[in-house]
Structures are given as structure tokens and as C-alpha cells.
Amino acid sequence: MPVSIADVAKLARVSISTVSRVINRRNVVNSATRARVETAIKKLGYQPNAFARGLMLRKSEIVGLVLPDLHGEFYSEIIRGASTRARELGYNLVVSSSRDGDESHSLLYAIRQRSLLDGVAVMVSELTDRVQEVLVDFRLPFVVLDREIDSTRHDSVVIDQRHGALAMMRHLLHDCGARRVIFVGGLETNVDTIARLAAYRDVLAEFGLHAGPNDVYHLDYQYETAYALGLRHVREWAGAGHCVFAANDEMASGIVDAATAAGLAVPRDLGVVGFDDTRVARMTRPPLTTVRVPMALMGVNAIELLCQRIADPQRATTRITLRPELVVRESCGSRARIS
Amino acid sequence: MPVSIADVAKLARVSISTVSRVINRRNVVNSATRARVETAIKKLGYQPNAFARGLMLRKSEIVGLVLPDLHGEFYSEIIRGASTRARELGYNLVVSSSRDGDESHSLLYAIRQRSLLDGVAVMVSELTDRVQEVLVDFRLPFVVLDREIDSTRHDSVVIDQRHGALAMMRHLLHDCGARRVIFVGGLETNVDTIARLAAYRDVLAEFGLHAGPNDVYHLDYQYETAYALGLRHVREWAGAGHCVFAANDEMASGIVDAATAAGLAVPRDLGVVGFDDTRVARMTRPPLTTVRVPMALMGVNAIELLCQRIADPQRATTRITLRPELVVRESCGSRARIS
DNA sequence: TTGTAGGCGTTATCAC
DNA sequence: GTGATAACGCCTACAA
Q: What is the CA B2 to C1' D8 distance in angstroms?
């Protein structure tokens, strides 16, 4: 069943080295013999054994992508970007979640033990994330997404969360004339939420304001919980110059729908803005003002950096910072175009 | 740098076979020497070379998943299910899209040539899909998703689209008393759309009705295009007992929003139902009546079947048919619970 | 229980 | 331009 290079050689009546040459550097071999070999290859349906090949070449042309979760549009866009770029560079992409299931048999652990992969891109979005420990004595080339662990020792691609959140808050306070902003974030340990919350407080202070005692909430980034929260609080939040800054679009959408269900008009009675600019932002009525985070681009750059390091392990570590961009739509009561 | 089994052997002062035994069948080796070997392994940070290993064992413990696209929640749920199950079974998962980029360097082609993968699950959702040609003389174990190419020769997992669409149509005509149904599908070549459209026509006939000349549309499964279509036609569609059956939730959501924007009330003036039961269905106001397609389960079963075949290449081919389930919410004017 | 030796299928290094 | 032959790192009879 398994036809090897030797079979081809025999059929073509050449040595295995010649067959190997035909496959890899077809130019340095006489065209007549090459034709003979190629016929034999076709006839036998020969395909080189990838393991033997990898054993010699010490590479598989497979790279990995490890995300906290595979659920939701945010992550799927990263996968898409990464997958596309990987294939463009001649690599295949393995994906895995670092969260669900027993961590001890996540892709990362498997990789650390014995690896067919040439490198990995790992996203670390929780302060408490265990993956950091795994990365400490990691052999393979890797790049870290969304967060830096130790910037001098590895490549990374991060989103300038602060920039995006500052832009949004200033838009709210300056352009829309907001005077009270309620912040609805993800988990308190989530690095993105932390950065956005800090920017929220800073801009508030910049305008001589501060968050009231009940103005900051931590949820789970889900529509449903935000909708439920909205149903409970939306009437007390409502008011001229009042606005909700949700840390992602799903939650913003939930709050908009809750407000609408409660008989409020968005943005007239309450402004609501999101973050990420996923499809939900455009599918919410009114469409959400939000901050566009270039997710697919993040995947693209991750793979880009990773493959560069694979190609040259000695190169200096680099960090790519992606700038999110304010997208003004209709949920905040302003149509001023700010970028 | 690359520490091999020989280094461990030397340090532990045993032969390489003993080291190998410690790694693979630790029980058959004296516990004292085993301890020595394990110490050496730890000290050296030894990790077996996966290529050499694969060369002997002829397996990589990596399986592939090829989807038409990586974009959108539908596919990401499949990835999630597949990824989870794969890891449970001790495999890692490579994903790839068969669509974007030059087809000739898609994962499938790469695999056909030389493969590190132990098997692949491939989703074929367009009649015109080229992947079918690639599959014809495919060496590796593979399972086909969503569509059968030649049922006797390979495993497959399919969704009983017809069942779901029949249930929906009967619900509309029987339980909700609909008298006119507009069908908004995906591309005409899309196998799911074809099945759903057939069911649509059949149930119409069952009730002595038929599709009017302007009652069937083919779009692209996107919210935006459906919204645009809705804006143009929603007033003419409106009426008691009138309803739109969209072939996915995104389009249904777009039509609901268009109807709302046009001042119509859903479902009072126009019923709208979707398909798939993705998150959008719950994030639309009113929440969509739809058909729940077990996407994650499809991924799970795909990997399940694939791994079974890898384990036993001789086993009879099996087909798993997943039944979608009617989910009645508020967009169709009925709250009757039907399953 | 342990060691020796052969082979897995390639590619690379030499001769010729 | 082509052919032996030695790695590559591991597993597994088989022998001791």
C-alpha cells in the first residue's frame, strides 16, 4: 500500500536520489529522465511521506493558533485572518482553545511535549490565564496576542485598547455632550476590560467628572446578561446626556434592546455604545457607535510575525500595535465623523 | 540544541531502547532504572521528536477540518464542536477554508500531496464545489459534511434539512394560519437552500397553495442584503397571514429590522422566521422563530466518525443524520410549542 | 530486565 | 547528471 520513493526509483530505473531531485529541484536533472520519473510517480500515485520529510527538513509547515475560546465572532475573525495568511505563506493552521476541557491536554501542552508544529500564536486575555506558565519554558517559536508577558523575550501583536477607549470616551463627553457614563465591562480579570475601564476613568477625570458608585458593572461579554442588567437598570440610567459604554458590541446590543423594550428611545433617552465593531454592531437598531478592532488583521499579523521568526530565529523581537478606530453610528446621539 | 533519545540514554547510562520503553511502556522496565531515565529526561528537557515518531507509528494525531468559509457563527460553532471532540480523543485539529484564496493551495490539495494528517472532515455545501474533485482519489480517511457525494464510499454527517424546513412550513401554515409565504434563500446552488426550497414548495402544495411569481428570492445569506431587499418589498409583503421564511437567521433578522424600519409590526403585519438558531435569532426583536441546527454537534460527530475510521479503516461506512428542531419564538405570531 | 541492530522514507554529501 | 551512502530520531523484534 504505501508506495515509497524506492518504488518510484525502481519503476523509473533510476536511483532514489534522482527521484528526490525531481521532486525538489527538478531543474538540475536531465529532462528525459525527469519525464521518466514523473511518469512513474503518476503511475504509482506516489506521495512523499511527510514524516520522513519533516525528519530531514525539521519542519512541518504547520503553525498553531491558541485562543481563549473558539466561540463568537471575535475569535472567528482572528481565525479567519490567521488561516488566510498562513496559507498564503505556505503553512497550515491548527487551532485550539486554551479554555474548555481539561487544560492539561490543551494544544499547548501537547505542543510542549512533542511537536509537529513549527510555531504557535497564543492569545492571553485573562490575567489569571494558566497558559502563561506553559509558555515560560517553551521551546518552539511563539508569538503572544493581545497581551505582553515579557516583551523583551518574544514577539507580540497587541491592540491599543487604551487608544480606542480614550477616543470613544472623548467622543461621548466632548462631541455628544455626555455628562454621565455607565461602564459595562467583562470580567474584572480580563485585560481588555481593565484597559478600557482605566481609559474610562481617566477621560471622566479629564472632564472633571468621576464614576458614580453604581456606574461600573462587570458582566461576561454576553448579550443575554447585558439585556437582563439593562431591564433592571435602564430607567434609572436614562436621562439627557446619559450614556452606557459597553465593553463589547454584544452587551451594548443587549442594553439597547432592553432600553427599547422598556419604552426608551436610543439614543434620545439613553446613549449606548459598544466595542469591537463585530457584525452585531450593524445588526442592532439603531446601529451601534463602536470602536473597530481589527481582529482579522490581528490574526494576519500574528501569523506573519510567527513565520518571520520561524524563518529567522535570531531576529530581534518585534511588537506590532494595532490601532482601533472609532466608528460613529447612530446609538450615541451624534453623527460627527471622528476617526 | 536538539536533545535526542541518545543523549538521555547516555546520561542515564542505559541504552536508547530502555529510554524508549520508559516513554512508551513504562511498566516493563525496572523501577530503579526507570527513575534514572526519568531524571535524565527532566534534566535534559528531552521531548521526543514527533517526526521520527510519526515515521515509525505512521500517525500524527492531527486531523483536519475543511469548511467552505471560516466566517460567521455557523461555521465557528462547527469548529468549536470539532475542536473540542478532537482534543477529547487525543487529536489536534487543523482548520482551513476551501474557498478563499487560490483553491490550488488549499489545505485539501496540500493534504492530497503529502500529509501529516491522519484524516480530514470536509464540508461541501455548494453543488459546484471543486472540493469534490479533489476528494475523488483521496488517500486519507475522510468524512463529508452536509452533503453526500457517494454514500457507499465514505462516512458522512448530514443535517436533515428537509425535516426542519417541513416542520417550519407546517408550523407556519397549520399553526399560524399563514396563507402566503415568501421564501428568501441563499444561492441557488447551495445544497441547504435547495433542500429548504423544495420543502417550502411541497408544504405549500400540501395546503393547496403555491408560490407566487415573486415569492422566491435568492440572496447571499447576509443581513445587509436581506435588509435592503426588505426595505424594497416589505410593504407589498405585509398582510394578514403573510410570512417570510428566510433560509438563515441573519437574513431573517435583516427583514425583521427592515419591516420595523418601515413602520410595520412583526409579527402582526408580517411574520418572519429564520433557520439555524444562531445567536442572532435571540438577539433580534422580536426573537426569531427558527429551526435549530445542531452545528456544534455536527462538528463533534464529524470528528467522532473520522477518528473511528482512522482507528478501523475497514469498518462499514456510516451516515449520521442530525435532526434540526423547530424553535418557536415570537416572530411568527404563534407561541404554540412544537418540537 | 536490558542491549543490539535493523528499518521507517527522506534529503544531503559525496564521489563518479 | 547520476548514484551510493550516511544521516535524521525513533521503535521494536530479537538476542543476551
A: 12
